[in-house]
Automatic annotation (TrEMBL):
It comes from Marinomonas balearica. The lineage of its organism: Bacteria, Pseudomonadati, Pseudomonadota, Gammaproteobacteria, Oceanospirillales. The keyword Transcription applies. Pfam families: HTH_1, LysR_substrate. Keywords: DNA-binding, Transcription, Transcription regulation. One of its GO terms (cellular component) is cytosol. This is Transcriptional regulator.
C-alpha cells in the first residue's frame, strides 16, 4: 500500500468520480484506475462499488478512508516539517474566519501580517463557525477563528479577544429608550438574522430555546450591509458584535439583560504539525488581540 494509492483513493471518495479525481490530481484517468485496482488486489478487498457510473465506497472502503485521511495528513505534516528544516523562507496559511470578523476586525491585521511576512501567502476562507470547525478537523484549514462555546478535544485553541453581542435597532425604535433588552422583549420583535451555522445565529437560537420561544425571523442573510440596511429602515432588529457598528451607521445598540459576551478563539488540529508560517500567523494575530 503506497501513499500515492491512498491519495488517489481519497480523491475518488471525495468526488465520487474517477474522472474528476484524475483532473484534481493532475494525472491521467487510466493511471488512477490502475492504482486503485492494484490497491484492491494488494488488500484482497473491493473498496469501490462501480455500477452505472455511480461511484460509492464499500464498507471496507469506508473503513480504509478513515485511515487513509490520517495517513495522508501525517505524511503531509512530516514532509512540511522536513522542508522547513531547510529554513523558514516561504509558506502558506489557510485560515477560516467568520464573515463578521473578516469584514470588521481582520482586514488591518491581515495587511499588517503580509507587510511583515511578504513571502507568506494567505488563503482566507469565510464561513460559519460550525463549517470552519469541520474544515479544521478534516485538514482543509490550518487555523480557524471560532467561538469558544463547546470545543472538541481534537482542537487546540488560543484566546483572541472577548466581544459583547449587542441588540441592534433603528434610531427611532422603542428599544433606543431602554438601557438594556431582555430576551423576552427581544423575541417579540421581527428579527434580521444570519443563516444557520454562524456563531451569531447559534447564540440566538440557543437563547430562544432557553427562553422557550420561537424566534420570529423575517429576514435571513449573511450580508452584513444588508442586515444593517434592513434594520436601519425599521423592518426588523438584529444582533451584532460591538465592533461592527460604527458612528456612521444609523443604528442604536443596547446590551442584552443579562449581557452576552463571546470568547473568540483561534483553533488548530491538536495532533497536526503547525508549520512555521502558521506559527508566525498565530503569534502575530494573538499579539494583536492582546492590544484590543
Amino acid at each position: 500500500m503506497e501513499i500515492k494509492q491512498l491519495r488517489y483513493f481519497a480523491a475518488i471518495a471525495e468526488l465520487a468520480s474517477f474522472t474528476k479525481a484524475a483532473e484534481q490530481l493532475g494525472v491521467a484517468q487510466p493511471a488512477v484506475s490502475m492504482a486503485i485496482k492494484k490497491l484492491e488486489s494488494d488488500l484482497g478487498l473491493t473498496l469501490i462499488h462501480r455500477a452505472d457510473r455511480n461511484i460509492s465506497l464499500t464498507d471496507e472502503g469506508s473503513k480504509l478512508l478513515t485511515h487513509a485521511k490520517k495517513i495522508i495528513q501525517s505524511t503531509d505534516d512530516a514532509l512540511l516539517e522536513m522542508q522547513e528544516l531547510k529554513g523558514f523562507e516561504r509558506g502558506e496559511v489557510r485560515v477560516g474566519i467568520p464573515s463578521m470578523l473578516g469584514s470588521y476586525y481582520f482586514p488591518p491585521i491581515l495587511m499588517a501580517f503580509r507587510n511583515r511576512f511578504p513571502d507568506i501567502s494567505l488563503k482566507v476562507i469565510e464561513g460559519g463557525t460550525w463549517q470552519l470547525q469541520k474544515m479544521l478537523e478534516n485538514g482543509e484549514l490550518d487555523l480557524g477563528v471560532i467561538v469558544a462555546e463547546s470545543l472538541p478535544e481534537t482542537l487546540d485553541t488560543q484566546r483572541l479577544l472577548q466581544q459583547e453581542m449587542k441588540v441592534v435597532v433603528a434610531t427611532d425604535h422603542p428599544f433606543s429608550e431602554k438601557e438594556s433588552v431582555t430576551p423576552a422583549e427581544f423575541f417579540k420583535e421581527e428579527l434580521v438574522m444570519f443563516k444557520e451555522g454562524y456563531f451569531h445565529r447559534r447564540i440566538i437560537d440557543k437563547l430562544a430555546e432557553e427562553a422557550g420561544v420561537k424566534a420570529n425571523i423575517g429576514f435571513e442573510t449573511n450580508l452584513i450591509p444588508l442586515i444593517k440596511s434592513i434594520t436601519e429602515q425599521g423592518f426588523g432588529i438584529s444582533t451584532m458584535l460591538s465592533m461592527v457598528i460604527s458612528d456612521d451607521d444609523q443604528l442604536i445598540t443596547r446590551s442584552f439583560n443579562p449581557s452576552i459576551w463571546l470568547d473568540l478563539t483561534i483553533a488548530w488540529r491538536k495532533d497536526s504539525y503547525l508549520s512555521k508560517a502558521n506559527q508566525a500567523f498565530l503569534e502575530f494575530v494573538c499579539e494583536q488581540g492582546r492590544d484590543v
